[in-house]
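URGENT: need a sanity check before tomorrow's submission.

F., can you look over the Rho GTPase-activating protein 3-like record below? I want to be sure the sequence and structure line up before it goes out.
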Amino acid sequence: MMQGGGGDDDETAAAAGGLVDHHRRQRQQQQPPMMEIGWPTDVRHVAHVTFDRFHGFRGVPEDLQPEVEVRGAPSASKTVFGVSTESMQCSYDARGNSVPTILLHLQRRLYDQGGLATEGIFRITAEAAQEQRARDQLNTSGVVPDAVDVHCLAGLIKAWFRELPGGLLDALPADEVMRCQTEDDCARLCATRLTPPKAALLDWAVNLMADVAREEKANKMGTRNVAMVFAPNMTQSVDPLTALKYAVQVMNLLNMLIERALKKHQPSPPDHPSSSSSSAAAARP
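Structure tokens as predicted:
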């Protein structure tokens, strides 16, 4: 009868342990030595730079001003899309709403180029390459490029809302949106549930949609058609099915708000951002 060799097992375990120690030492030798980073020394506070939503960057040293768009900066970020309004330069529109200046520039160009009377405006998509070039220039300079057609301008406005962090209307509970039966119901819900910056944005957008709907005979875009193309851009639901259901409710909400705006306001051309900012500021205490 043979018994297990305890000595062999001990030798095997010892050899395995030695091999593990050998590999551990090899890994330690291969790792680069850790570099200790000390605290900064000789620090001087030379400037305090802030971003003002209505005046751009403030406090930029003179030697850096040629490299920074001090007053004309469209945003404190490197992009004007996907950025909250708190980080963007704003101006007042004709109704006193604080709106990102870039939207007012796009609106002005859209109106000047006859976009309101263009058939299918906000429904027909522009050439992808043209829209990308326009986005790139807007992100770098905040200036709407020349030779951009009205469908591209309309698409950029929708894209701005679609990429707005948090969505413009996501703060509205779906059940409360569904219960809105009248135009006044919709207005009250938005006034109570939306923050002032988003309420101002919505008012600007609704009046833009109303201006489009006024030209229905020419552009074939009535209130319901305009609401339909804008609704998916006003929310950011992750679930496609939920997004589709909510978009229908948002479409009905927007449709009633547009109808309300048509009854309440007469058509008026948008103010230029620079003049609207100064006139509204002068009117405010």
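My own read: The chain is about 50% helix and 5% strand. The longest strand covers residues 50-52. If you see anything odd, call me.
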